[in-house]
Design a protein that fits this description.
With about 160 residues, the protein is mainly α. The chain has one domain. About 100% of the residues lie in helices and about 0% in strands. The termini are far apart. Keywords: Coiled coil.
């Protein structure tokens, strides 16, 4: 019986060994499943972390662009204001010069009218003087003057 007992003990050890192998396989499967879950979770966590990091970089770039555009806009507005002030000053200068020229032209027109009036009076005076000269040169007129002078003397 001793032989049967060894055989039974061997069988029992074999079954235990098989059961341990099965339990080891199950443990390996569970470990693999657990490891796969852990990797998926890490990948899931890493993915959003990477996505978040990428989005933060994009946000930083966008903020730099906004800052640059704001600086450009500020410079543009300052430049526009300077140009507007220069044009305003030029317009005021031109308006002032226009008023001066307008006043100068009015003054010149008034002087022209005065000169034209003087010329007309001089022409009238010259015409009267020429008429008198013509009358004085006319022989019949000279006789009338002499006659009038004689008449004036006789009355006295």
């Amino acid at each position: 019986m001793k032989g049967g007992y060894v055989y039974g003990e061997n069988s029992e050890l074999k079954r235990k060994d098989i059961r341990r192998d099965e339990l080891l396989e199950e443990s390996k499967k569970k470990s693999k499943i657990s490891k796969d879950k852990k990797e998926r979770i890490c990948d899931g966590l890493r993915g959003p972390g990477d996505e978040l990091s990428m989005r933060n970089q994009e946000l930083d770039i966008a903020q730099c662009q906004i800052h640059d555009l704001k600086s450009l806009w500020t410079k543009s507005m300052k430049s526009q204001k300077d140009i507007k002030e220069r044009f305003k000053t030029q317009v005021e200068d031109l308006q002032s010069k226009f008023k001066e020229y307008k006043d100068y032209i009015r003054s010149e027109l008034c002087q022209k009218e005065e000169i034209e009036g003087l010329i007309l009076r001089l022409q009238l005076e010259l015409n009267k003087s020429f008429e008198k000269i013509k009358e004085l040169k006319d022989p019949s007129h000279q006789h009338n003057i002499a006659y009038e002078e004689l008449g004036d003397e006789s009355i006295h």
